[in-house]
Amino acid sequence: MRQPGRKQKPFTEINTAPFTDIILVLMAIFMVTTPLVMQSNIQVNLPSSSTGEPMRDARQISIMVTSEGMVYLDNKLVSKKNLKAEVSRIHKSNPNLEVILYSDKMARFRDIVGLLDILNELKIGNLNIATRTE
After folding, report:
1. What average pLDDT does range 106-130 have in this prediction?
2. Domains of the chain with bracketed CATH
């Protein structure tokens, strides 16, 4: 309640707590949705299989080959030379590494054979080829 004869001071401070709350909520939303958006950017049309099984939870990497012959390692575009170096580095730190090969059904066979040669040269034993189940 105002006392008679006293002037009220103007409010000159800004309360930043609601702004901080909004920023934290937006940051959480972006942190959750970014991996989903990044994964869906690379379009690979997988071949079909009637005997496909879901992967078990283990340390794994994914290699994608598009119909244009572009190679992605864990959703990052790489050259075949860099792919070999990166997979070798990861394999040294984890000998039980599983590799999942996502190949577009229209990819050239020589691109797939080249990747299989690289993985064989690195002595990777756990290789799975991803398919769509019918």
Report:
1. 89
2. 48-133 (3.30.420.270)
